Amino acid sequence: MRTQVAIVGAGPSGLLLGQLLARAGVDNVVLERHTAEHVVGRIRAGVLEQGAVATLEEANVVGRLHRQGLVHHGIEIAFRGERHRIDFEALVGKSVVVYGQTEVTHDLMDARRAAGAKTVYEAEDVTLAGFDGTAPVVRYRHGGSTHEIACDFIAGCDGFHGVSRQSVPASALTTHERVYPFGWLGVLVDRPPVSHELIYVNHERGFALCSMRSPTRSRYYVQVPLEEKVDAWDDERFWGELRARLDPGANERLATGPSIEKSIAPLRSFVAEPMRFGRLLLAGDAAHIVPPTGAKGLNLAVSDVRYLAHALSDWFRRGDASGLDSYSARCLKRVWFAERFSWWMTMLLHRFPGSDSFAMRMQQADLTLLFGSRASQQSLAENYVGLPFDD
């Protein structure tokens, strides 16, 4: 098989890249090791920056998003039983849209299917070769047979544990990592949200978050120790712990019910530099991970893909390599800003095991400054709604 761009990974970053390239007239094939049902069934966050929405508009996959997405003009932060609102519109004149990553993936799958673009699910034993030269090759097994894709470029969009970054020689990579000593226990429930905006909670028992997927489906999280097991948390225990961390007003509005999904997500900050290795280019979680506190994971993947799609399109249409040559640096500039913001939000809102009185006082001072300073709130809002693209 021959194509211009072989895309490894059919999550939102790989599918979005395929859609943008197809609209630019660039042929591409997407490989995915899981089934389509597994990919679309993964429960992930879904706070979209305006820049991410604009990129999805460019890909022409926003019909349902514009109909069903929930526009949020701010967030609330609860501390010592009181909630404080950060008004994005008043501070920076922008908003975000809540629309689940599962829904984004579903829309992209539908668009790719409608376009007749080739996607190979259940591609096993994927290997990448030749990307240090001018003739990259992707090999894989499917249906009991071995297949080969010759291409001009390989896009590694296969996540943190995927084969793409692992195919790069260790000597060519510089990695940076921070693993946090706790996780988020999340519950999805078919009940109306406790609030029309997200509520972030700093509590002596630990962090909590009240979020949503739709006007009738809510997503709640509580901070738990890293070694905690999800089987130890039945619904009754979860709701009791969440109630213990919420303010009286939120408790009064909280509608509980049987969970339809429950999982524990560890928190990690990770960056691999650079993001280009000859004709292999990494995007999304294959190159970087952020803790979910800053709502940046999906948005960073979208910005990577935006830069990559434009760079590849310029190369194929005009032979212009400037976008490819600057791809890694442009992406990493945004990545590090998002890493800093997500790290700061995580430090601000969580209780860290073994924190001494000085660390606790610093956290309290940070929160007090944030609640009383328009400049501090503006900085948070500017980062939360998304920094501008470097176009």
Quickly describe the structure:
This protein is an alpha+beta fold and 391 residues long. It has helices at 12-23, 36-41, 50-58, 63-68, 88-92, 101-115, 163-166, 235-245, 248-253, 297-318, 322-349, 357-372, 374-385; strands at 5-8, 28-31, 47-48, 70-72, 74-79, 82-87, 96-98, 118-120, 124-129, 137-142, 145-150, 153-156, 174-189, 199-202, 208-214, 217-225, 259-273, 276-277, 280-282, 288-289. The protein has a domain at 5-48 and 57-69 and 97-177 and 267-370: FAD/NAD(P)-binding domain (3-Layer(bba) Sandwich), CATH 3.50.50.
Textual characterization of the structure:
The protein is an alpha+beta fold and 391 residues long. It has a domain at 5-48 and 57-69 and 97-177 and 267-370: FAD/NAD(P)-binding domain (3-Layer(bba) Sandwich), CATH 3.50.50. It has 13 helices and 20 strands. The protein has helices at 12-23, 36-41, 50-58, 63-68, 88-92, 101-115, 163-166, 235-245, 248-253, 297-318, 322-349, 357-372, 374-385; strands at 5-8, 28-31, 47-48, 70-72, 74-79, 82-87, 96-98, 118-120, 124-129, 137-142, 145-150, 153-156, 174-189, 199-202, 208-214, 217-225, 259-273, 276-277, 280-282, 288-289. The strands form 4 sheets. Strands 6-5-14-15-16-13-17-20 form an 8-stranded mixed β-sheet. A 6-stranded mixed β-sheet has the order 8-2-1-12-19-18. Helix 1 (12-23) packs parallel to helix 6 (101-115), helix 1 (12-23) runs parallel beside helix 10 and helix 12 packs across helix 13.
CATH class of the domain at 5-48 and 57-69 and 97-177 and 267-370: Alpha Beta
Write down the Rg. 21 Å
- Count of runs of 4 or more consecutive helical residues: 13
Task: Give the terminus-to-terminus CA distance.
Answer: 34 Å
* Major sheet description: 8 strands, mixed
**Extended strand count:** 20
Mean pLDDT: 96
* Cross-sheet strand order for the largest sheet: 6-5-14-15-16-13-17-20
Helical content stands at: 25-40%
Proper CATH architecture of the domain at 5-48 and 57-69 and 97-177 and 267-370: 3-Layer(bba) Sandwich
Low-confidence stretches: none
Strand content: 25-35%
Secondary structure class reads alpha+beta
The geometry reads as globular
Query: In CATH, what is the homologous superfamily of the domain at 5-48 and 57-69 and 97-177 and 267-370?
Result: FAD/NAD(P)-binding domain
CATH topology of the domain at 5-48 and 57-69 and 97-177 and 267-370: FAD/NAD(P)-binding domain
